[in-house]
Amino acid sequence: MSKLIKINKGNEIQPHYEKAYNFINEHLPTTYVDLTISCLTKKGYPIPNKTLIRNVRNKSIFRNDILLALVEVADENKKAIEKIKLLTS
Q1: Structural contact between residues 67 and 52, judged by C-beta atoms closer than 8 angstroms
Q2: What predicted TM-score, i.e. pTM, was given to this entire model?
Q3: Closest Cα to residue 52, out of 35, 66, 69?
Q4: Could you tell me the CA-to-CA distances from 10 to 5, 7, 61 in Å, in that order?
Q5: Residue 42's pLDDT is what?
Q6: d(CA 32, CA 23)
Q7: 83, 37, 82, 81: which is closest to 57 by C-alpha?
Q8: Helices and strands, counts by H and E, the chain
Q9: How far apart are CA 25 and CA 4, in angstroms?
Q10: What confidence tens digit (pLDDT) does each residue in 38-74 have?
């Protein structure tokens, strides 16, 4: 069996990905997995595994389609919270 060599590029993350992850960390709801699945299926993507979504959220795997869906779910959550604050004040 061959040994696999993991190439570690360090923590080189592009700035737009870093902004996306900061936005996700701040605004993503705790029930994000099912919301992300429904967002992806609306766009016509095949249903991803829930573990795959969690791995993208934790920066273990980079998938642009799932990252975009996570940002959209976080944006919807942010807008809903702002609307609730506006209506209750």
Answers
A1: no
A2: 0.83
A3: 66
A4: 15, 9, 14
A5: 94
A6: 14
A7: 37
A8: 4, 0
A9: 32
A10: 999 999 999 999 999 999 999 999 999 999 999 999 9
